[in-house]
């Protein structure tokens, strides 16, 4: 293993040895190429640069206490990328190709999978871009699918902890019938300003209401929202949020724990009724919410300074599955090394 100070890593880019690539030409996917160059040679009129034909995914490889390296639900990331491809007219990357490339890139860079003890992981970033030159607004004929990996530090440096969020009404991340349900870069460009305002004001993240009525909960930055009350896990149903694989997994675990699960519209005022609330996604699994401020109305929805018991139980259980220390009854993990 590389001699790096794993526990001091941030969520930044650290070079590794290899990335894997596969090109789509003449209506079909080619061979997988192993590459050590971090740069792309790209036509300046490529559609990804001008018209946003760009999609990505995010997942992690975990070095486990049993010595193996596991990845979590990569079949789900493949399906979500296919949905994104249909959404912005790119050719679908077949699940087998996606999973073969994930496995390959982790194995090729196994020296960079951080130690279990460090709490750090290997972040896997699949990227699909339109590469042919177009000046008119058309989908590309040619595409490149590539995956790189980079070690990232633990999300919670000082242990599982709660953070404050802020409702922002002045900016929308995505429109009700727009691209919010797809993992495309454009949604992130649209969120940069609100995110920077939230940080400036001392919050961990911005919180979006639905763009049309500004009435219902949508998402927290790049994570899904959930609230807990009366032994029920409640999460928004919306046409403008990204279907989080972490959220999907937490819903299943909540059900396994005998809780009720509701996926429905959540009016902002309902926030006052939750005992616990959290943001969920691959980066943190769960980032518990201490309070949510609505600066326009002056309201504060308070969930207490520390993570609640159910969020903590869900967090520990899902992490246990990812690290192979809890039984993987739903067959969510794949051993890629060991
Ligand atoms: C990636 C992403 C999430 C989290 O999805 P996971 O599959 O759980 O990592 C949530 N919201 C947005 C906008 C995202 O891009």
Automatic annotation (TrEMBL):
Family matches, as Gene3D superfamilies: 3.30.470.10, D-amino Acid Aminotransferase, subunit A, domain 2
Record flagged with keyword Transferase: yes
Entries under Pfam families matching the protein: Aminotran_4
Sections of the chain in a coiled coil: none
Transmembrane segments: none
Catalytic activity: L-leucine + 2-oxoglutarate = 4-methyl-2-oxopentanoate + L-glutamate; L-valine + 2-oxoglutarate = 3-methyl-2-oxobutanoate + L-glutamate; L-isoleucine + 2-oxoglutarate = (S)-3-methyl-2-oxopentanoate + L-glutamate
Any one GO molecular-function label of the UniProt entry: L-isoleucine-2-oxoglutarate transaminase activity
Name of the top EC class for this enzyme: transferase
InterPro entries referenced in this protein's UniProt entry, alphabetically: Aminotrans_IV, Aminotransferase-like, B_amino_transII, BCAT-like_C, BCAT-like_N, BCAT_family
GO biological process, one term: isoleucine biosynthetic process
Keyword Transferase set for record: yes
Keywords linked to the UniProt accession: Amino-acid biosynthesis, Aminotransferase, Branched-chain amino acid biosynthesis, Pyridoxal phosphate, Transferase
Pathway: Amino-acid biosynthesis; L-leucine biosynthesis; L-leucine from 3-methyl-2-oxobutanoate: step 4/4; Amino-acid biosynthesis; L-valine biosynthesis; L-valine from pyruvate: step 4/4; Amino-acid biosynthesis; L-isoleucine biosynthesis; L-isoleucine from 2-oxobutanoate: step 4/4
Cofactor: pyridoxal 5'-phosphate
Enzyme nomenclature, EC number: 2.6.1.42
Modified residues (N6-(pyridoxal phosphate)lysine): 183
Family classification: Belongs to the class-IV pyridoxal-phosphate-dependent aminotransferase family.
Function: Acts on leucine, isoleucine and valine.
Protein's UniProt name: Branched-chain-amino-acid aminotransferase
Species per Swiss-Prot/TrEMBL record: Hoylesella oralis ATCC 33269
